[in-house]
């Protein structure tokens, strides 16, 4: 099989970007290597090399034809090919790469040295160094070569600025980063200057490029712009804001989606906008999904340019309800320092209400720091504050299934506070403990509606056929709709003729539309109704 045919077959099976690089590599090799036998030995490296300059390295040990190919490669449009040719030539001459680069710059006429100067700029910037610093190790000609490059700074700027607007997205970011390093300026400042010098038609490209910089720096475009902004930049920043505002407008329907995964993706995307998306991120703090609340909390911390812990402390201090504090507590539950943070809130520091304390205790089960879980929860299980005890019981449900946790949850069923009993019922039903079914059924007679609803919910998971009768009584006669809804759901899971009869009666006659709907769904689940 010929090397050309092999390349075509491999490219056909490659991802698009890998295929493009290999194709560009093959074209560059054929452009500069004229000798057919040398091509056959050299260009095949494009198949496995993964770089546009993969073919160049082997030429440094070749004869006359190889040296001609290296000289030709110094004129290539890709700086990587040119730099690879310099390096290969250096090896053949026994020089350092930087000495060979300086020689190339100095031996080229000043009216034709832009390619050499650009190569020096980009090779230096690729290592994060200025050209002067990079060429300092080039020997006696290094300072003169660096001076030649600096003399070409305007032409270098124009060339790299043009690449920042390239139709090939993969070209833009390296050009921006190299220009920023060469000029000793931030990438954000270079983008602002580029926007100021170009028509509005290019704003979307620059906005996308700044987003790539933000992602690389683990920052947001809003934070980058606020950090760099100066009064004369107002018009330019407004142009970029206009682009990002359109993008945010397109995201808002996703934030209201009924699909939790779509909402998660949208909130994760919001984080790249930082302060520009503050309103949307604050709205996401109230989402029913814990992961979305955590993403929003982290996004707001990043927007403020502060550590998550500092913003979370303030968020908890400002919260008047457990619901308002929950996003900040949840975001910190898996963060380094989670135990000390949650313990402080649980003990009353920074918490306005006992319910917020209880929320902090509940999340201790998700924290991997501190003493063993049951030991860290023990003081809170004995707290005189009912919401704190309830939080400790809820935390038991987050622990790996074990006898100690189940025993503690079972003991909490005897607590006098209804919120603690509700938490215990929820934990025992999550543990799927059928031995607790009779206890749950007995609690259907509680005077507290929340306990009755929790008991009815629990029987969906721990109930048996013998519990259908008491659930049916609740569905028919409990004055609280939430209790009847929970009873209908459990009857739908347990089934049997008595369950069907009670569900049919509720579907036909219950005064609450939600109870009717759940009962109808239960009948369909059991094979009755349309």
TrEMBL record:
Residues 1-18 form the signal peptide. Transmembrane segments: none annotated. Keywords: Signal. Pfam families: HEAT_2 (PF13646). The keyword Signal applies. InterPro entries: ARM-like, ARM-type_fold, PBS_lyase_HEAT. It comes from the Bacteria. This is HEAT repeat domain-containing protein. It comes from Corallococcus caeni.
């Amino acid at each position: 099989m010929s090397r050309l045919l092999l390349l075509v077959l491999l490219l056909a099976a490659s991802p698009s970007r890998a295929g493009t690089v290999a194709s560009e590599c093959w074209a560059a090799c054929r452009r500069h290597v004229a000798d057919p036998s040398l091509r056959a030995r050299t260009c095949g490296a494009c198949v496995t090399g993964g770089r546009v300059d993969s073919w160049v390295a082997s030429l440094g040990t070749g004869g006359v034809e190889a040296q001609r190919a290296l000289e030709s490669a110094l004129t290539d449009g890709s700086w990587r090919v040119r730099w690879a040719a310099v390096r290969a030539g250096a090896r053949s001459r026994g020089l350092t790469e930087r000495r060979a680069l300086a020689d190339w710059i100095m031996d080229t006429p000043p009216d034709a040295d832009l390619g050499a100067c650009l190569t020096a700029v980009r090779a230096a910037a690729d290592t994060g160094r200025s050209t002067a610093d990079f060429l300092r190790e080039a020997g006696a000609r290094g300072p003169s070569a660096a001076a030649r490059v600096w003399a070409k700074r305007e032409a270098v700027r124009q060339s790299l600025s043009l690449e920042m607007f390239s139709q090939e997205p993969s070209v833009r970011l390296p050009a921006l980063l190299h220009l920023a390093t060469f000029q000793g300026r931030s990438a954000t400042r270079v983008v602002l200057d580029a926007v100021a010098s170009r028509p509005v038609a290019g704003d979307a490209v620059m906005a996308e490029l700044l987003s790539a910089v933000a992602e690389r720096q683990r920052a947001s475009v809003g934070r980058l712009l606020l950090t760099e902004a100066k009064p004369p930049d107002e018009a330019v920043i407004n142009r970029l804001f206009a682009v990002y505002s359109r993008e945010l407008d397109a995201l808002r329907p996703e934030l209201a989606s009924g699909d939790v995964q779509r909402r998660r993706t949208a909130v994760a995307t919001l984080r790249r906008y930082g302060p520009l998306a503050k309103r949307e991120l604050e709205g996401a703090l109230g989402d029913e999904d814990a992961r979305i609340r955590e993403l929003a909390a982290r996004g707001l911390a990043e927007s403020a340019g502060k550590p998550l812990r500092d913003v979370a402390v303030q968020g908890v201090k400002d919260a008047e309800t457990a619901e308002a504090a929950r996003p900040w507590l949840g975001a910190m539950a898996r963060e380094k320092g989670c135990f000390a943070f949650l313990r402080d809130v649980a003990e009353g520091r920074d918490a306005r209400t006992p319910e917020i304390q209880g929320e902090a205790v509940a999340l201790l089960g998700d924290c991997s720091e501190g003493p063993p879980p049951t030991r860290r929860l023990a003081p809170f299980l004995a707290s005189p504050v009912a919401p704190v005890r309830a939080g400790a019981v809820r935390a038991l449900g987050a622990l790996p299934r074990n006898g100690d946790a189940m025993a503690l949850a079972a003991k909490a069923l005897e607590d006098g506070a209804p919120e603690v009993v509700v938490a215990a019922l929820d934990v025992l039903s999550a543990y799927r403990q059928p031995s607790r079914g009779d206890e749950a059924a007995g609690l259907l007679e509680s005077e507290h509606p929340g306990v009755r609803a929790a008991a009815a919910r629990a029987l969906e998971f721990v109930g048996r056929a013998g519990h259908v009768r008491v659930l049916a009584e609740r569905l028919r006669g409990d004055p609280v709709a939430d209790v009847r809804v929970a009873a209908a759901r459990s009857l739908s899971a347990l089934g049997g003729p008595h369950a069907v009869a009670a569900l049919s009666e509720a579907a036909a006659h219950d005064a609450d539309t939600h109870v009717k709907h759940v009962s109808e769904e239960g009948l369909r689940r059991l094979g009755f109704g349309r």
